[in-house]
Amino acid sequence: MDNRQPDQAQCVIIGGGSIGCNIAYHLTKLGMQDVVVLERDKLTSGTTWHAAGEIVPAILGSEWECELYTYGRNLIAGLEEETGLATGWRQDGYIQPADTPERLEELRRGAAFMRRFGIEMHEITAEEAAEKFPIGDFSNTIAAFWYPLEGRTNPVDTTQALARGARRGGAKIVEDTKVSEILVENGTVTGVRTEKGVIKAEHVVIAAGMWSRQIGATIGLNLPLQAAEHYYLITEQLEGVTRDLPLLEDAHTWTYFREETGGLLIGLFEPDAAPWQIDAIPENFTFGEIEPDLDRVLPHLEKSFSRVPSAAEAGVRKLFCGPESFTPDLAPLVGEAPQVRNCWVAAGLNSLGILNGPGIGMVLAHWIVNGHCPVDHTAFNVDRFADGSQNTPAFRRARTPELLAKSFGAHFPNDSFKTARRLKRSALYDRLKAAGAYFSEGNGWEAPDWFAPSPEEAKITQYSWGRQNWWDWHAEEHRAAREDVVLMDMSSMSKFLVQGPDACTLLNRISCNHVDVPDGRVVYTAWTNELGGFEADLTVTRLSREKYLVIVGENSHGHTETWMRKHLRPGEFVTITDMTSGITQINVHGPKARALMERVSDADLSNDGFPFMTAREIDVGFFMVTALRVTFVGELGWELHVPTIHAVQVYDLLMAEGQELGVRNAGMQTLSSLRLEKAYRDFGIDVDNTDNPIEAGLGFAVKLDKPSGFIGRDALAGIKSRGTPRNRMLQFLLNDPEPLMHGNEVIYCDGQPVGHIQVGAYGHTLGGAVGIGFAETDDPLTAQIVSESQWEIDIAGARYSAKASLKPLFDPAMDKIKC
């Protein structure tokens, strides 16, 4: 095989494992022939060679996960026929047992959603599970799910087949070649340097698995991923283990089982995993193993034997320990690096590199060649990590032990990470904790989820898919927002000061709405890509002629800043300053919000003096704050942007003066239930880069007649010109007050599946579960069809009738907001 290194390429891929070979394979499929894969040793020598090779979906909770999984499964199943190389693909089927009502609820809730995306699964009895997996103990199993189309593949053989396919397409694979430097000029990648010389390249992809963090750091990239020990045991031949034995994943014991040469392979995703090589992965670690920690791992193996008791008496052929890399939020790191143009990342697959490799390869290839991501990237875009706080050695050391079990075990709607907490705390944290706040974690922030009557009661007594112990307290917060007044600490919202002579030009270029407005105007707008897909939804406030305040959700922090900087043109003068840590955002909302504000401020807070969607500098007690009259809950109110040094004093004043008005603290659960009653959208949760504002019902914020135009204008004009869309976002309210919606519930229109709920909550004012989701029909989805059709929502296998609406079911005329 020719192992010579070329001196130039259109794309250089660093890493010859599953991901690197998948990217090369898919780039050539899209017509890019000048592709080079550089592998420091031999193909698959990092972690690919010891992967289990299971091609099973577990419980997939998002559309992009389903799309990537089904694409990858189908590609792997046909790869041997295409390339002529054996891959080891076997369609043995897959079983998931449920031994508790909550686990069964989780599986049932996921079933309809996954079926909608082509994943065949059937609920079976414990007896049927035992027939398919006769060596298992299902005596405590309530029910199980059977996936007949899933199976396993040989990781090394599959990667070699991908490599052959890439070579046939024109790619060159060079082994025994270490990249010593990624070359960058003026913020754009220009190639790589190896011991053999320089390769000039238009694109460079970092797909080096657990080494990616170190490689990225050499050019200033923040790639938070950490290797962890991963164990599996292979038994001697075991009676009852046949070659066609299905794969079994058991969340109750954090274990997976499959046949291995007549024995049983037992893999662990234990709840106290061990990080490996915190400082740096050794560069010479090739086809390597880690010395097993028997004291730590044996108790977990013993627990696994409760599912397959005969394994406890079987001889041990091999106890293997090897590294797998994980990210802080268990989503991959994929996309263009925010700091370096044309430098791409595909890493952090969280032990799913074989399973998701084809999907990631397809996605990144399209992104590179066509300039856009073909699936929702909001969860895995590498630019989501805005700073290095989740990439310090201390953070990775603390978070990694939780990650394996978190990816494998049971899940609940409001369960957040327990480790590496208190990373980002509002200045009000201590006040809120003393007031009974229960904090959840999101994007590194401690967010008050709900408030108990006392700090001692601020805990979840039992996780559930139903009403938990905090339900009534949350309902009281919701009612207070609708009837009295609440304070919400929204300090986690990302805030950017954008200023300079060209600030208006930049923001008008990337905003669908007009932002060249009078000083003091707040503008709600979407940012879209060239295809008209969302890249953000946010507010842009003009503080003065050359100064704007951009406010967006914390989940979009890194992406929003990257999008602005990416679209600055040569010669434009704009400064972008992240003000998030310097501003404490206190939202005051409810019918009595004006009465409370008038007690603490001498400013004119009347509707005429301070209209909706305006901003003013006002006094609050001894302090000056920037106040925005906006809402995300559907009530009269203001966002107060308080300098952090004054935050506690302002909060204390508002609480003291609001006692007679019934003021309460309110948390994120209440924010969610309030905003979903009003059907407000939220980028990264309800809408993503594959959705557009027209179909999402936000056409009012798209000004197609802007003289200067905007990014995505032509695409959105084309969508608008086609008339009423077939795909539209609707609001849904269950007629039965008992069931709960959390997201992913399938929507039925006149008996046919037409979409799924993006996110749900309980509408305490409307009297039932509410949610929003896209519905797509064969004909234009007119208001008449929406009102006259029979709508149902599938929840854990049962269908419930629902009311659908194009307009918000709560206060559709916005009377409460504009009073």
UniProtKB/TrEMBL annotation:
**In its keyword annotation, does this UniProt entry include Oxidoreductase?**
yes
User: Where does the GCVT N-terminal domain start and stop, copy by copy?
Assistant: 428-706
Q: Name one GO molecular function term.
A: oxidoreductase activity
Q: Which Pfam families match?
A: DAO, FAO_M, GCV_T, GCV_T_C
Domain (FAD dependent oxidoreductase): residue spans on this chain: 11-367
| Residue ranges constituting the FAD dependent oxidoreductase central domain according to the UniProt record | 370-426
**Does the keyword Oxidoreductase feature in the UniProt annotation?**
yes
Q: Which residues form the Aminomethyltransferase C-terminal domain?
A: 728-811
What's the superkingdom here? Bacteria
Q: Which SUPFAM superfamilies match?
A: Aminomethyltransferase beta-barrel domain (SSF101790), FAD-linked reductases, C-terminal domain (SSF54373), FAD/NAD(P)-binding domain (SSF51905), Folate-binding domain (SSF103025)
Q: Which UniProt keywords apply?
A: Oxidoreductase
**Family to which this protein belongs:** Belongs to the GcvT family.
Q: What is this protein called?
A: 4-methylaminobutanoate oxidase (Formaldehyde-forming)
Recorded source organism is: Yoonia litorea
